[in-house]
Write a structure and sequence with these properties.
The chain has 10 helices and 15 strands. It is an alpha/beta fold and about 280 residues long. It has an 8-stranded mixed beta sheet. Strands 6, 7, 8, 9, 10, 11 and 12 form a 7-stranded mixed beta sheet that branches. It is globular, with a radius of gyration of 19 Å.
């Protein structure tokens, strides 16, 4: 029986400055495979065109997609949840009335109300926009597990007040939010995978940086927040890993005793190698 180690993607594994997964993080992932089930737990659909290359690079045994609305093990789908047509209609109408960018990327196409705001966001963040916009009203007749809001926290708060059955955890330095039904979460996905692989939540490790990781960080036996992450997340984590640009994943895995030292590598400062002491909450 191998315990699960789950990783959020953006700004946990994937550095948005380089838009690459640091070599040290990939080294840690490869070292974990023998003793642990490696899982990606993300707000993305890892089968979409923006995410496939990272899925194929990490090669997780299982994926918690779109904040727990789809759970896969290889090609097998363990769980799927889709928004009701009326809910999608209400969200799109509300976004249109309040000049909010709301929609989702499905496969290779992008369906957004106020797509010009998405383009502005992409240009400011990446310097380019390769979106393939389609009519967002087509979403009413499509399978949509969750949606995305692009904009500041004020818009997310406005929608949260209007839709009591939804949650809007912020991401991308509070410049966007996932739109998720409250019944779904990464934590629920992790619990399903623990049952599937015959292990327990108490033995699971979960890495994250954003508020859509809040529930899984609390639910896992050991929740690890990145130092570059949200302060509220770090406050509830069992351990705070160094910044993503300071080899945070690798160093945390070493400090927690998940991987062994490589040849010639000294033990992390302040650690005696025992998992128990490494889990002491920092800060």
């Amino acid at each position: 029986m191998r315990p699960i180690v789950s990783f959020d993607l953006d700004m946990t594994l994937l550095d948005h400055e380089t838009f690459e997964i640091p070599e040290s993080a990939m080294r840690a992932v490869e070292m974990l495979r023998e003793r642990y089930v490696v899982v990606i737990a993300t707000g993305r659909d890892m089968d979409s065109r923006f995410s496939r290359r990272f899925r194929d690079q990490v090669k997780p045994e299982a994926i918690i997609h779109t904040n727990g609305t789809k759970i896969t093990v290889g090609d097998r789908i363990l769980y799927e949840s889709y928004m009701a047509r009326e809910l999608k209609k209400d969200l799109l109408e509300f976004a249109g009335e309040h000049n909010l960018a709301v929609g989702v990327t499905i496969g290779d196409d992008d369906y957004y109300i106020n797509s010009h705001l998405v383009t502005e966001f992409d240009m400011s963040r990446w310097g380019e926009c390769g979106r393939r916009y389609q009519d967002p009203w087509k979403l009413l007749d499509m399978d949509v597990p969750s949606m995305c809001y692009i904009g500041g926290p004020e818009g997310a708060a406005l929608m949260e007040r209007a839709f009591e059955d939804l949650k809007f955890p912020l991401f991308a330095e509070n410049r966007g939010a996932d739109i998720i039904e409250k019944k779904n979460s990464k934590a629920n996905g992790l619990e399903m995978l623990c049952e599937y692989f015959g292990t327990t939540m108490e033995e699971a490790y979960a890495f994250g940086d954003s508020m859509n990781d809040y529930e899984i960080i609390q639910a896992a036996g050991t929740g690890i927040a990145m130092d570059n992450g949200n302060p509220r997340l770090k406050a509830v984590a069992d351990y705070v890993a160094p910044h993503i640009r300071e080899d945070g994943i690798y160093k945390a895995c070493r400090a927690l005793g998940l991987i062994e030292a490589e040849k010639g590598e000294s033990r992390p400062a302040g650690q005696d190698g025992s998992q128990k002491e490494a889990v002491a909450k920092e800060g």
